[in-house]
Amino acid sequence: MALFHYIPDVTTLELNQELCIGCGICLVVCPHDVFVLKDKKALIANKDNCMECNACAVNCPPRAISVESGEGCVRSIINELLGRECDCC
Amino acid sequence: METLLSFIVAIANESWQLLKESSIYIIFGLLVGGLLKVFLSPTYVAKHLGKGRFMSVFKAALFGIPIPLCSCGVLPAAASLKKQGANNGATTAFLISTPESGVDSISITWALLDPIMTVARPLSAFITAFVAGISENLIHRPKPPGLIMADTGISDDTCCEDKERPSTLRKITTGMNYAAKEIWGDLAGWFFFGILLAGIISALVPDDMIAHWLGGGISSMLIMLLFGIPLYICATASTPIAAAFILKGVSPGTALVFLLVGPATNITSLSVLIGLLGKRATVLYLLSISIVSVICGLLVDLIYNSLEISAQASVGQAGEIMPEIAELGATFLLIALSIPHLVQWAKKCFRPTDSAGCECSSGSCSTETDKAPPPSTSCSYPDITAPVATLFPMAQSAPAEPGEIIIPAVKQSFTSGSMKTVIGSIPVVTSDLTARDRRGSFLARWNIGRMHFIVEPGLYALGNPDTESPVLVTANYKMSFDVLRSSLPGKNLWLLVLDTKGINVWCAAGKGTFGTEELYDRIRSSGLEKIVSHRRIIVPQLGAPGVDGLAIQKHTGFHVVWGPVSASDIPYFLDNKYQLTAEMRRKLFPFSERLALVPVELVQASRNILPFVLLFFLLSGLGGELSFRQAALEFGPFATLALACSVAAGTIIVPLLLPWIPGRALSTKGFWAGIITAYGLFFFSGRLTPSTGAKWTEMTAWLLIITAVSSWFGMNFTGATTYTSRSGTRKEMFRAIPLQCAAVVIGFSCWLFARFYF
């Protein structure tokens, strides 16, 4: 079965290819097939698959990946907008 | 049963009548109160309250009359007056006249009682306040006011207003806002409580009983004093109760005592007063209130007797001046204004400690605290590599001292024994799940006992591992742990359980509890270094958002190998030199997983919708020619059914049919699910082609409400899915929520229209 596709063109994922060392760890940890390795550099191939989970950014040795991570959860966003403490979601 | 039902109906009826008659006056009172707040600056008030033993008290008592504050709300205001130089007598007077009367309570007195009481009430309040203030100042001669107007923050924003001089229009808006939010916020809960209590008194208490005890005279006033002094009730809320008393034969004077003493004092405010004014002044304050109130009560009775009017006859007269439409409109406006306050109030009453009010519906990842809602289910990934769990509340492992080794309890509900190692006896588990394990998982899926469904963190042995056996890392959510071990039959492994507060791996990784730091600490405190000779740990891939593999390697020497997404692929992973296919690295969201999430979503959503079901039942019963009960039974069940359908659409149809419903946004999917469900509902209930205008309006209302509610709950499923990003969720929220709100408001208006005007 295929992956689900959520709203396109929104992800905050960015990859700085100049820093990339081509280790491929992002391909391993990404649960949604976002990256491919081409010419010893990682490449964002399926940008809209990204769910901003942060796994690639946390594990990228040269810190070449950045993403504004957070839970895609309505309740937690509402709480955040209301300035509530709880991070229940 | 029959009688009980008729009692409830009678109570609701009485309360509704009272509410209808008083609403418009309350709104009027709130308007004036809000305007007073912005146009009457406390600085100005304070200027007049410092000088003179008599004039200051006179003015303070007078100022307090129209201000709509309850006995607790007045305390901060009085405290700031005192700070600004008001003397003790003036403060006392202000403290009495303010809660005893206000524009809101004066206007509701007009609505529910009669002209005499409407005058007697503020007048008595003034006299009480004046007498108490004067006696205070006579007994303790006030010192000449020292530093007047030290700008110790009088109440809130007023001092700033003076500087900025906002436009009149601006002031009015501020005042309206203040009236709806602050003033009514203080009053709403108690007001409805009062209305309900009055309904109960009217419906249940036999007339002759009250009339016998409280028919008039000094003794009935003293009884009322005893009843009223400790009671915390605001002036507005006490009015319907007094009206009910009078209808039952209480003498108007006795009711007046209640109206004066009930709002002026309560146990909390008395204790604050002792701090503010001192013990002696507080006793004086109580005495003055009691004596003057009783005297006023006696006088009022005298007036009624000498004029030979009966107070009873006047009750409810004022209401008839108002056209029915205006009354209904005001009532609904008042109810609309009250809903947020009532919700707050109810929360305060029923959960005094839980101020955060955190209710993550889908609990996709639960909170950090123990009471917090559900952990793993909604984030939906229980079947990841997981370690061992116990049903016992964890002995919360405090951060270990450097070098200290913490071993989880050997005897936990799921352990099958222990094995001796160099660091001591380590609990052993098997891959077989018992009936008890399964029952726990089942209940947790229904959101029952989920927060206690945890495993003590630390190292466990699966089978009979040795120093070369692989180490699997997992979360301490028992369901994660059970899924992990049950997918590893015949394997001998070490399981390292992290303390994720009972949350599954993926959600915990998102929060950081399944994180680099915890893994580092747990490697150290579990004694893992002494147990295994290799330096390799297998961490589930879905833990990667929280765990920096390189940092772990650098600081502990353990090399992090990323295991598969699903626990069921671990045997393949272990048997193939830690290689995985691309498919095994992918997090899918199959039907079975979505099905498993339905119960939690359903339970949460039903809980959220329940108050609205009750609201619809209540509203169904009101208005029209039918009796409350007939009308409630006529319209209530369909409302319940419709709301249930909308919940089912959002929390069952959306998850299950996720790939096949059109739209990418979950709110869009919820919308379509709602349309389909509404169609089905109308079809099967034979309402697809309504016969009358009223029915057309009602069905339009339900179509709007069902699609909006379904869309909302569909959107809430974002918290449970495995593929929604925060940016995307945010984007869809900003688009969908305004539409959902509009649909609900229009739908609800249509429903009210159909219910009350056809």
From TrEMBL, chain A:
Gene source species: Candidatus Desulfobia pelagia
Annotated InterPro entries: 4Fe4S_Fe-S-bd (IPR017896), 4Fe4S_Fe_S_CS (IPR017900), Fe-S_Ferredoxin (IPR050572)
Record's signal peptide: none
GO molecular function, one term: 4 iron, 4 sulfur cluster binding
SUPFAM superfamilies in the record: 4Fe-4S ferredoxins (SSF54862)
Keyword Cell membrane attached: no
Keywords per UniProt: 4Fe-4S, Iron, Iron-sulfur, Metal-binding
Protein name as annotated: 4Fe-4S binding protein
Highest taxon in the source lineage: Bacteria
Domain 4Fe-4S ferredoxin-type: 11-40, 41-70
UniProt keyword Nucleotidyltransferase present: no
